[in-house]
């Protein structure tokens, strides 16, 4: 595939030109932005089993990581503070390393069946306070670290993206078998996946076994 390059003639490089392409913000879009977690934001967070957390390192290189757990896994410590447990993963630690060099984070809270989402921006820190971690216990496992976020802005996001994507509509669910397994994708792109189907199936089964053993 030929490398794509943006035509400078059509590059939007300043805010004035950007805003000239759009109508002015609706009053509600401005008013909805809050500086604290009011009752509806707290209620949404307590319903959410899944978030995405966006971070950047000191050079501005961006990363987005999914986090999922039982409903209400993100704890509301007060109207300005959240705590997110860090569960066992691949130990890349991208999100947490980024936070150490650049504490600004963006959170997107998702509730299954809700087309609306909740966006929270703030300043994050890493803590291993036993009192906070104990409240995040699942299956007798306590996280090693929690990400504590001091909230700068919080607002509900409209339903258009989820409705356009038909995300919760079963008629639009796709068959996972139409793409290779995660293990095969990684091996194909690195050392090479085994051609023998039985060997590949064993590797896939090993990953599933690891999921069961290391989920918490």
From TrEMBL:
Domain Pyridoxamine 5'-phosphate oxidase N-terminal, chain residue ranges per copy: 41-157
Matches recorded under InterPro entries: Pyridox_Oxase_FMN-dep, Pyridox_Oxase_N, Split_barrel_FMN-bd
Superkingdom of the organism of origin: Bacteria
PANTHER family named among the record's database cross-references: FAD-BINDING, PUTATIVE (AFU_ORTHOLOGUE AFUA_6G07600)-RELATED
Listed name of the protein: Pyridoxamine 5'-phosphate oxidase family protein
């Amino acid at each position: 595939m030929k490398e794509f390059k943006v035509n400078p003639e059509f590059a939007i490089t300043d805010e004035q030109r950007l805003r000239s392409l759009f109508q002015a913000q609706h009053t509600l879009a401005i008013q909805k932005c809050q500086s604290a977690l009011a009752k509806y934001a707290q209620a949404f967070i307590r319903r959410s089993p899944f978030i995405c957390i966006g971070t950047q390192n000191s050079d501005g290189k961006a990363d987005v990581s999914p986090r999922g757990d039982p409903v209400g896994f993100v704890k509301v410590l007060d109207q300005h503070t959240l705590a997110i447990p860090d569960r066992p993963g691949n130990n890349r630690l991208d999100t947490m390393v980024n936070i150490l060099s650049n504490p600004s984070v963006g959170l997107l809270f998702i509730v299954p069946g809700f087309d609306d989402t909740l966006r929270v921006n703030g300043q994050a820190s890493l803590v291993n306070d036993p009192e906070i971690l104990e409240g995040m216990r699942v299956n007798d496992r306590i996280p090693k670290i929690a990400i504590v976020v001091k909230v700068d802005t919080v607002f509900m996001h409209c339903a258009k993206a989820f409705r356009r994507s038909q995300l919760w509509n079963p008629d639009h669910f796709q068959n996972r078998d139409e793409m290779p397994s995660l293990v095969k994708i990684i091996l194909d792109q690195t050392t090479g996946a085994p051609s023998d189907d039985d060997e590949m199936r064993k590797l896939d089964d090993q990953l599933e076994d690891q999921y069961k053993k290391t989920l918490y």
